Amino acid sequence: MAAGSSHSGSQPAKLTIVRGFALQVNHSEWEELRTAGIVARARMKIDFSSTHRCFLLCAEESGGAIANIGHYCGFLPLAGDPTFFVRPVTLAMPNTVHADVSAASLVSIEMLRYGTTYTLNIFLHWLATSPGLDELPAHRQKLLFSANRGVLSQPLWQDGKTAQVGAYIPAFHRRTGDPLLIPPALHEAVGAITDAVCCVGCRKSHFLALKPIRLPGELSAPSIQTPIPRATVPRAASIEMLPTAQAGKNKKKRDRRRAKQRLARQEATDVALPNCPEAVADQSEVPALQEVTP
């Protein structure tokens, strides 16, 4: 999880709030949302993670609905992101925060419902490469889908209408009647948020069980860098590729060990040498005695 704790070296830059992707809600709708106590926080924070040693995007999945209006904002990571973290949250007040989310890149899905009319915004967010820990990386975003005045005639906010979770998606069209097709990779997330803006008195996360999003090439951002795992060197290769300095140290150790062995053998030989003259003298005296005896 992203955390702003201190670490060795220079201190990381202070967190920054990103708000530029939120839906434009008119004054009358905003007043109804405020009166109903519906809080959907379409914003993110850039914070430093001491675990992953990098900056991450931190957000809150939040929102809910009443019978007449609903507003929800959820976040999903990209497939294969090792920095993704999610923590379910349960608060006393419904229609507020349901989960904390953080990752190096996030897809934000925000929807507003008024009656049977729906507005949808989907963005991809990521961070540019940071020049250092004391400077925040730049936030980047890409619009994946945006449409308003979508229609879904089923009153999903009524009791018994949420049996098929994610089965309904609003239909969006241009003014000319041409359909606006949602990318297939985002269908599951749009179905989940459609249920969320119809969940009266919402107290649960609608995105917790969803899979990470795998975007096609035309929707992904080319500058997103996926973490590269550490390369492991085989044992045989590591022996062959020893640095020159290390090889010289090993040779000196071998020479010192051999010198100690030669010195030990020499000392053992010197200890045995004083007994040799006495033995020779004893042998020379025996024949002399034999000669003197008649």
Structure description:
This protein is an alpha+beta fold and 294 residues long. The chain folds into two domains: 16-196, no CATH class; 235-292. The chain is built from five helices and nine strands; from the N terminus they run βαββββββββαααα. The protein has helices at residues 27-36, 187-196, 235-240, 244-272, 275-292; strands at 16-18, 44-49, 54-65, 69-77, 85-88, 97-103, 105-114, 117-127, 139-151. Strands 1, 2, 3, 4, 5, 6, 7, 8 and 9 form a nine-stranded antiparallel beta sheet that branches. The longest helix has 29 residues, at 244-272. The N and C termini lie far apart (111 Å). 28% of the residues are buried. Residues 1-9, 225-242 and 276-294 have low confidence and may be disordered.
Summarize the structure.
It is built from five helices and nine strands, in the order βαββββββββαααα.
Tell me the layout of helices and strands.
Blueprint: E1 16-18, H1 27-36, E2 44-49, E3 54-65, E4 69-77, E5 85-88, E6 97-103, E7 105-114, E8 117-127, E9 139-151, H2 187-196, H3 235-240, H4 244-272, H5 275-292
Antiparallel strand pairs: 1-2, 2-3, 3-4, 3-6, 4-7, 5-6, 7-8, 8-9
